[in-house]
Amino acid sequence: METAEKECGALGGLFQAIVNDMKSSYPIWEDFNSKATKLHSQLRTTVLAAVAFLDAFQKVADMATNTRGATRDIGSALTRMCMRHRSIETKLRQFTNALLESLINPLQERIEDWKKSANQLDKDHAKEYKRARHEIKKKSSDTLKLQKKARK
Fold it and tell me: Which range of residues forms the domain containing residue 70?
């Protein structure tokens, strides 16, 4: 019976270590999520600045295209360059949206779920562990009593 108590204690300790590791990882995940949120915010600001810049750049290109002479060729080259940069802006916008929708929001929901489930696991484990230890002690004492009776 003593080995059963040792094994029970070892498993209980292992479970408690895992739960403690889960609980101690919350601040790290929350910090990561807050930094990702800040990155998302800054990327959104960058996208807005890029859109404003490209709009102004497009006006310059249109102005050059609508003039006479060699400036027209420069204007069409600037327009092509502006269109390429618009595709970069589109990809940056897609990345920014994906960051929010596929990382930040799901991670925030998971962190809350992890907190709740870890706390519930800890409570349930504590109850079950106490009950199991009590049963083991009771069975152990019953076994000792029966062994004494058997000797008599």
Answer: 23-118
- 114 Cβ contact list (under 8 Å, min separation 6): 22, 26, 29
Nearest CA to 22 out of 92, 134, 122, 90 is that of 122
- Say if CB 78 and CB 60 are below 8 A apart: yes
If you average pLDDT over residues 102-130, what whole number do you get?
A: 90
3-state secondary structure of 1: coil
Q: Residue 29 domain-assigned?
A: yes
Q: Which two tokens stand for residue 19?
A: 């739960």
The answer to whether residue 81 is domain-embedded is yes
d(CA 14, CA 16): 5
- pTM (two decimals): 0.72
Please report the pLDDT score of residue 74 as a whole number: 93
Helices 105-151 and 2-65 pack at an angle, to 10 degrees, of: 180
- CATH number at 63 reads 1.20.1270.60
Q: Torsions phi, psi of 69, nearest 5? A: 90, -155
Number of helices (H), then strands (E), belonging to the chain: the values are 3, 0
